[in-house]
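Lab manual, section 2.4: Encoding a predicted structure.

Procedure: take the sequence of the chain (182 residues), apply the prediction step described in section 2.3, and record the output as structure tokens. A sample record is shown.
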Amino acid sequence: MSATRYLGPEEISRTIRRLGHEIIESNRGTADLVLVGLLSRGYPLARRLAAAIREFEGVDVPVGSLDIGLYRDDVARRGAPPPVRPSDIPVPIDGKTVVLVDDVLFTGRSARAALDALLDFGRPARVRLCVLIDRGHRELPIRPDFVGKNIPTALVQRVRVRLSETDGEDAVYVYGEEAASA
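Recorded output:
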């Protein structure tokens, strides 16, 4: 199966810094802002966004992690139950602006599950969606507020985000027969 690398470490770093600026601008600062990363790769991305915000704003934005495994609409179809990982949201989210962070937005089903899971922790004033990669092919009416990179793909292709925290490298790959022409 062929693979094309779309982003490397420098591009990912630059994209995260830009996304951090966009989040601050949209929120008009860092007041009442909470970043929540979907496990597993959304969480390290949220931590990187918080580090970027700290660098240029001098403010520590709270970062949480969210496991959506039991909230997915395909749990019953998968056979074995998903592994349960602990969610950790370190501050109350009632009345806050929560930015859900994920690596790839595809059908929108993970984002929908994240909304359901998040509401078990409280009632935020606003929820925003930030993704490193938007590959299209939505099945649900979900649109991200902050996008690192749009990568048009064919349905048969796969997008893989690899992060040093989980995979030992920073890169975004598209796998599949049409990867070179997407």
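Check your result against the sample. The radius of gyration is 16 Å.
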